[in-house]
Amino acid sequence: MHKLFYICLFLLGMFIQNDVVFAQTQLEMNQESCNDFAQTDLELNKYYKMVLNTYKNDPLFISKFIISQRKWLVFRDAYLESIYPNTQKNFYGSVNPMCRCTALTDVTLVRLKQIKMWINGIEEGNVCRGSIKV
User: Residue 88: which CATH number?
Assistant: First the structure.
């Protein structure tokens, strides 16, 4: 009996040591999700500014790029409203902040991938590259 107790205690210690088992409150999960979004948004803004700087000698592109980003922000917000259309406070429960921030992170990561193309370039020979440098 003591042997089983010590084995269970050992295994529990292994799980805790490896961060396999941990408890989080809903508030902590909400904060973590929203912190993830904030970091993703910062990275998006960093690359947005890099594109503006890299292409500063192409005013036509810059004006179209700025318009596209403004319209993307409108899209992002409308997309979120379509997922969570009810404006009644607490309608979606205590998980709502976490879910909203996760959705914002997901859609922002897609936009970030798009914007990075203007910095990272695309494969030489791609005839559909448009304004994206090789």
Answer: 1.20.1270
